[in-house]
Amino acid sequence: MSTLLELFQLYQNQEFVRNAFLAGTMVAIVTAIVGYFVVLRSQAFAGHALSHVGFAGATGAALLGLSSLTGMFALTLLAALGMGALDKRLQGRDIETGIVLSFALGLGVLFLNIYTQYATQTVGVLFGSLWSVSHNDMLVTLIVGLIVIGVLALIFRPLLFSSIDPEVAQARGIPVRLLSVIFLLLIAVTVTEAVQVVGVLLVFALLIVPAAIARQLTNRPLVALWLTLLLGLAFTWIGLLLGLLGHWPVGFYISALAALSYFTVTGFKRLRPPTRYQNMPHPNRECD
């Protein structure tokens, strides 16, 4: 009881704790919603590549005297547009994504070599630095997160339909190509926000793992989406609490919780007897 009281007092009295919880909560919500569609559309590699682009953006921003968050937003959005424009395929842009990934890593190394004074801050970009989120960064995260949620709410039904069955969606007049580019931009923004919490190297912990767990537990899109959201919030909040109580980085706690949960669910699922296959509900029925 005394520990909970101390944590509550920390939240009330320490601005950096409030900033961390508010920013972490928004990041968890956005990464959960976007991450579900990333898993559904098999675009995990794109999210991975864009996180590395964020590293190049952060180091490049240091050369220009800008904040790392600004640099990450700018370069990841440009990379997402480039990935969307390189090919006309709807999904699985593996070759184009790999090109962007390798080029971004090279840029990051170049910028870091030129501006060696930024080397100490690079650890925060690579592994997350939620406790150092400023009040302005927190406000930017909240505003951008609300914008992402608003855009997703507007395109939710056609995006879900085109993610499950792109050929049929295109035949019914849904702008699948445009939705694909818009969603890549949303991934770019989401990854940039998630880097503050878990860093470039651990971004999968919030973007991919909650959705991967949810899809193992249910085939119903809306149920899986809500479950992804709950898992993302749980990993983030528990990771923050453990970070306050312990001495290890928050990113480690979040990634460890996510990995343990995934392997636990996978293990239990393999132990269960096989069940009769059921068709996935049609997206029109789920969205009515």
Automatic annotation (TrEMBL):
Main location group: membrane
InterPro entries associated with the record: ABC_BtuC-like (IPR037294), ABC_TroCD (IPR001626)
Any Gene Ontology CC annotation: ATP-binding cassette (ABC) transporter complex
Gene3D superfamilies: ABC transporter involved in vitamin B12 uptake, BtuC (1.10.3470.10)
Keywords associated with the record: Membrane, Transmembrane, Transmembrane helix, Transport
Compartment(s) of residence: Cell membrane; Membrane
Segments crossing the lipid bilayer: 20-40, 60-86, 98-118, 138-162, 174-191, 197-215, 222-244, 250-268
GO BP annotations listed: response to zinc ion; transmembrane transport
Pfam families, alphabetized: ABC-3
Name by which UniProt lists this protein: ABC transporter permease
